[in-house]
Amino acid sequence: MNESVAYLGPRGTFTYEAARSLFPEEGYQLVPCDSIPDVLTAVDQGEFLYGVVPVENAIEGSVTLTLDWLVHHVQVPITGELVYPIAQHLMIHPNQRELPLTEVKRILSHPQAVAQCSGFLREHLPNATITYVDSTADAARKVRDHADESWVAIGSSTAHQLYGLEMVAESIQDYHNNFTRFIAVGKSWTHPHSSWEHQKTSILVSLPSDYPGALHQVLQSFVKEKINLSRIESRPTKKKLGTYYFFIDIEEGNHPRMKKAIADVESWGCQVRQMGSYPCYDYRKIKGS
């Protein structure tokens, strides 16, 4: 029996594509959830062994809902990472294939997808109204179900195939280095077909309120051990204005030097929560496996 994987659905979203890459369907059953909190809560409560959610986009930045739920609401470890290319396509119902873009009345998509294509939309569809929906796949479904409307959807090539739409324009995102970082959470696992490229560790640091220069000392602890930090981001503690947690991604697995650096951070009075040490996969190798 295949093990179940929760992901931010429905089918046809970019999270679906990432989940299918990390957890191939011949060995796992992919189950869509309506929201990021639903995915993380289901894994935290043991309804699913694994979950996949987006955490960061190269253009729009961090997915703060994912970060805040990992901090405040669930205790699930990060167990894998996949940086996945995001190509946004413009799609229309086959009945409307001859419609000029200037006559399109409505654009449907997720807010992040619209933001990633804002330049293209201003130039080519200046007269269309934007309607935000829950996902890019939901946008494609609504266009499919309204054959007589002069609507278009922005979404993935998978959504285009699943919902039988016509491709109007491909890769309409404003920046072509558009990637999203997806994380797997839950039970430890290994990819059945692909080896990982490198390992990473994520931690959450709380600074002591009465220690000036504490963040500088935290960073120095890693400098001393010659450990590279690939990302640091603050999120409110939600306890007091001006107090923050710091997400830190470390380009190192569970290495003695990293353990020493974290021990040094804790010696300054900081609290450190281990979010996970995990493999990072290359989507090109997975796709070719």
TrEMBL record:
CDD domains: ACT_CM-PDT, PBP2_Sa-PDT_like. The record marks T180 as: Essential for prephenate dehydratase activity. Pathway: Amino-acid biosynthesis; L-phenylalanine biosynthesis; phenylpyruvate from prephenate: step 1/1. Coiled coil: none annotated. InterPro entries: ACT-like_dom_sf, ACT_dom, Chor_mutase/pphenate_deHydtase, Preph_deHydtase, Preph_deHydtase_CS. It is an enzyme of class 4 (lyase). Keywords: Amino-acid biosynthesis, Aromatic amino acid biosynthesis, Lyase, Phenylalanine biosynthesis. It catalyses: prephenate + H(+) = 3-phenylpyruvate + CO2 + H2O. NCBIfam families: PRK11898.1. This is Prephenate dehydratase. It comes from Marininema mesophilum. The gene is pheA.
